[in-house]
Amino acid sequence: MLLPDRNTVERLLRHYRAQELTVLSAPGDPSLRRRCEDTAYTLCVLMGVRSTPEALRAAERYVAPRAARLPRAQL
User: Fold this and answer.
1) Which residue from 61, 58, 60 is spatially nearest to 71, judged by alpha carbons?
2) Are 30 and 23 in contact, with CB atoms under 8 Å apart?
3) Contact between 37 and 22 (Cβ < 8 Å)
4) What Cα–Cα distance (Å) separates residue 7 from each residue in 12, 22, 43, 50, 59?
5) How far is 41 from 35, CA to CA, in rounded Å?
6) How far apart are CA 36 and CA 23, in angstroms?
7) Which end of the chain has the lower number of beta carbons within 10 A, N or C?
8) Residue range 17-48, pLDDT digits in tens
9) Beta strand ranges found along 1-75 (DSSP E)
């Protein structure tokens, strides 16, 4: 299975978080919402999931430092 580039996922995650704040500050602007939804869709595709919350959780786990991803027993 091909894995997405970690740097790309990290960049998109940061981009989504910034867009999310922008949309919250101007909820009536459809172009801001559309850009945020496009970024969320891209994260969903890269992470192989169907919902934005799943994609965000998967992306955060994927870019986390290796020690943070291991179960405590393996450290």
Assistant:
1) 61
2) no
3) no
4) 9, 23, 13, 21, 11
5) 10
6) 8
7) N
8) 999 999 999 999 999 999 999 999 999 999 99
9) none
Which are the contacts of 52, defined by CB distance < 8 A and separation ≥ 6? 40, 43, 44
Asked whether the beta carbons of 62 and 6 are under 8 A apart, the reply is: yes
CA-CA distance, 28 to 51, in Å (whole number)? 23
Pair of tokens at residue 20: 């999310």
Q: How far apart are CA 56 and CA 39, in angstroms?
A: 11
Coil vs helix vs strand at 3:
coil
Q: Which two tokens stand for residue 69?
A: 């991803």
Residue 26 identity (one-letter amino acid)? A
pLDDT for 14 beyond 70: yes
